[in-house]
Amino acid sequence: MTAHVGIPELGLDGVSLDPPLFDPAAFRLSDEETALAAKARAMGQAIFARRAAIHDRDATFPTENYRDLHKAGFLAICIPKGQGGLGAGYRAYSICAAEIGRYCGATALTWNMHVCSTLWSGPLADDLDMDAATRAAHERRRALHYRRIVADGAIYAQPFSEGGAAAAGGAAFETQARPVEGGWIVDGKKIFASLSGHADYYGVLATEHSGDGAPSRRNTLYLAVPAQAEGVSVVGDWDPLGMRGTVSRTLLFREVFVAEEQALMPRGLYFQAATRWPHMFLTLSPTYIGLAQAGYDFTVKYLRGEAPGTPPVKRRMYPTKQIAVAEMRIRLEAAKALWFQAVTEAQANPTKEQVLRAYAAQFSTMESANEIARLAIRTCGGQSMLKSLPLERIYRDSRCGSLMLPWTAELCLDRIGREALYEPGETDA
Questions:
Q1: CATH classification code of 277-421
Q2: 427: which DSSP letter?
């Protein structure tokens, strides 16, 4: 039976939905998770999908998608209901991001950067240690950010990479925040900074440093830098292989004053989060689970003669194509099952096995998405290369997943092998 979902605020009376990425009964989703996922799927299928090719072709940011996300309440998906949000937890958000990723990878990926500003400062921070005064100050500050998002549709970015080892957790961030009266002076650079020029605030990770001693990752600050602040600039071009609509140009900060109330986390909390809540870095993966599903979905429709924009010719009777679809399905089911387990386990202080499983889920998701897209292109044949069809975009977008810091595919392999063989503090000396 086909499900229908209406989103009156977006003028959608009732969208005939594709099957869910995660069947609510099979995966034991709550009623709230099921409803949110259906709404995300309706937006992606009915609205975002038809805009995706334009933003990919022109490398333009999907501004109108963000207006729709705001109208539907999805910019505030992880903001508590009592403060005007939808109150979604980690898993509910992740499933919704995967559903949107099926239809527009760039929207899902950049939406993740925005949502993390509320997820990290919200339910994740609630699990961490703070004294009463620090927690009260944090509550007051995050309420300011929440009001901007709920009332005004403010968009938050999350520039992370700098071209060095900091984004991978191996060194202090080179972007520095010098304490001054009432706040900080921020200097530095972020590369591959998604939403550059389109966000209202940049959630910048910077090392608090007064000039004494060596910079330390323990002193990382998480600050919301206003996009219009004096000293903030966006430079360079954006013409990549995939995820072109993220518009991830370079951000420069030159003597930028950031007031104390712009802190998204208190001093020392980011380092505590990175140490005790490692699943915070798994939130890029939902986009690629969605892309994996999209590659499989297109192939099945194409071989059945049902893909929009293609002749109604059936190609499903050939054994080689049947075998390819079987291989794709096996990879898809394995990736989804592992990923769902990992996001379900997301919490503070996970066990060693849960952390290893999270690394494995990240690697499996990123690599499987592109492998499924590769099989899809080979199986669907020449028409799959056409930019009028979504498969070549799915292939290019999916190839980028393994490069995503802080958990690239290579880093995941390195950490799984090392942490499986060594307990903390063990050496071969």
A1: 1.20.140.10
A2: -
Domain with CATH 1.10.540.10 in the chain: 4-154
Task: Locate all alpha helices (DSSP H) within 44-168, ordered by sequence.
Answer: 49-58, 63-71, 90-101, 105-119, 125-126, 132-152
| Rg, the chain, Cα only | 21
Q: Under CATH, what is the fold of the domain 4-154?
A: Butyryl-Coa Dehydrogenase, subunit A; domain 1 (1.10.540)
pLDDT tens track, the chain, 429 positions = 467 788 989 988 877 889 999 999 999 999 999 999 999 999 999 999 999 999 999 999 999 999 999 999 999 999 999 999 999 999 999 999 999 999 999 999 999 999 999 999 999 999 999 999 999 999 999 999 999 999 999 999 999 899 888 778 889 999 999 999 999 999 999 999 999 999 999 999 999 987 777 889 999 999 999 999 999 999 999 999 999 999 999 999 999 999 999 999 999 999 999 999 999 999 999 999 999 999 999 999 999 999 999 999 999 999 999 999 999 999 999 999 999 999 999 999 999 999 999 999 999 999 999 999 999 999 999 999 999 999 999 999 999 999 999 999 999 999 999 999 999 899 998
Q: How many residues are given for the chain?
A: 429
Residues of the chain with CATH 2.40.110.10: 157-268
Buried b (16+ CB within 10 A) or exposed e, 241-276: ebbbbbbbbbbbbeebbbeeebbbbbebbbbbbbeb
- Please report, for residues 32, 158, 184, 215, 257, the alpha-carbon distance to residue 223 in angstroms, rounded to integers and kept in the order given: 31, 10, 9, 17, 11
DSSP run (H or E) holding 179: strand 176-180
Q: Where in the chain is the domain with CATH 1.20.140.10?
A: 277-421
CATH architecture for residues 157-268: Beta Barrel (2.40)
Evaluate whether 285 touches 365 at the Cβ level (below 8 Å): yes
Query: pTM higher than 0.90, yes or no?
Result: yes
Rounded distance, CA 79 to CA 41, Å? Answer: 20
Of the candidates 55, 78, 74, the residue with the CA atom closest to the CA atom of residue 66: 74
